[in-house]
Each structure stands twice: as structure tokens, then as C-alpha cells.
Design a protein that fits this description.
Distance between the termini: 37 Å
Order of helices and strands: HHHEEEHH
Helix content: 55-70%
Largest sheet: 3 strands, antiparallel
Strand order of the largest sheet: 1-2-3
Number of strands: 3
Radius of gyration: 14 Å
Length: 137
């Protein structure tokens, strides 16, 4: 499947918008596309498990949650630093989206997955801050 760049860019903006709306509606958390708001994503991810328990960890839910919040974090990063979304199909059974910035690629959805599913001590904010540090002048 070939994805046009403008379609991918639009999809990621829409996913980020969904993250903002869901955080507000589900948890009364405001996400405002600022660097400071990225820390709120750490809390929102764990709030899904607190509120929905095992249902939040079902495959479809995990996929949606991680993709919309990964898009949100990526859009904040893109607004600050720049970058280009890329749909990676190197493994046709498990395609994914990353944000390419110069020679670096950031899997923001992947770090959301790690926090939500594997280790609640992993911080998306810490990952975001490390990514920013890679581009500090």
C-alpha cells in the first residue's frame, strides 16, 4: 500500500486532534500542543488502564491509543523542530509510522506502547526530551 505524504500528514494531524479530544472528554485533561503538555500524555496513557482495565489493553484499543497519542507527541515535536512523517512498511505484517528529523527517526507511538503495555515507569516525556536534546543547537 502506497501512502501519499499529504495523506499521511493529514492523518497524523487528525489523530493528534483525536488525542486532544479524547483526553479532554475521558479524563478532563487539556492537551494544547505545547512541550509542557507532553507530560500529561504519560498520565493519560495510564488513566486508560485505570478506567478501562483489561479493555484498554485489547489489541484494537492499544493500537488506537498508542497511535493517536504518538501522533500528538509527534505533532508537538514537529511544530517545535520540524520533521516528516514516514509510513514504514519494511515489515509488511507490522507497518508503523515514525517522524524523521534529519538522520533520526522517532517512534512516538512505540514509546506510548511501551508505557501502556510493557512498563508504566517508561516516560513518553523523557523520550520526547531526549529527542529534543538530539536537536539542541
Amino acid at each position: 500500500m502506497r501512502v501519499q505524504q499529504h495523506e499521511l500528514d493529514q492523518l497524523m494531524k487528525e489523530c493528534a486532534s483525536d488525542a486532544v479530544q479524547t483526553a479532554e472528554e475521558e479524563f478532563n485533561v487539556k492537551l494544547d500542543l505545547t512541550q509542557d503538555s507532553v507530560a500529561n500524555v504519560d498520565d493519560v496513557l495510564l488513566s486508560f488502564v485505570d478506567k478501562y482495565h483489561d479493555k484498554a489493553l485489547e489489541d484494537n484499543a492499544v493500537f488506537t491509543i498508542c497511535n493517536i497519542y504518538g501522533a500528538y507527541i509527534g505533532e508537538v515535536f514537529k511544530k517545535m523542530i520540524g520533521g516528516t512523517w514516514r509510513y514504514d512498511q519494511s515489515n509488511p505484517d507490522a507497518p508503523f509510522v515514525v517522524l524523521d528529523v534529519n538522520e533520526n527517526s522517532y517512534a512516538f507511538s512505540g514509546i506510548c506502547y511501551e508505557r501502556l503495555v510493557n512498563n508504566s515507569n517508561i516516560s513518553v516525556k523523557a523520550y520526547f526530551d531526549k529527542a529534543l536534546a538530539n536537536h539542541a543547537q
